[in-house]
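FAQ: What does the model actually see?

It sees only this:
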Amino acid sequence: MPLYDKPVRMLFRDMIADLAAREDQVFGREAAVAWFAQRYPLVKQGTVSAHLIRFSTNAPSRLHYSARADEDLLFQVDGSRFRRYSPLRDPAPIHTQADIGVQEPIEDSGELDGPSEFAYESD
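And it is asked to produce this:
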């Protein structure tokens, strides 16, 4: 059962409209997490981080989330910063394993992606 009247993937579109109103406007992972914490507090930080990757056209790990073409919304500037995807200036989105070799590597900002939360099954 959904936590809110819209699924998180749809709420993300609202978040992007607020945090990146202009195509060149960059926002950080922390800003996305804070946006959800303020408006939709039941959405977990890990869920927000996973959706950032899913919607980032140049993130190779988006393949793990079965991203669709209608989810090509963000471009990952570095390890923790994002902006709207621009088909005119950005490389083609990653949709298959073959697309990964064509992409430029994402620069690491030196920051961790967030708290490391790994739960063992026995926990």
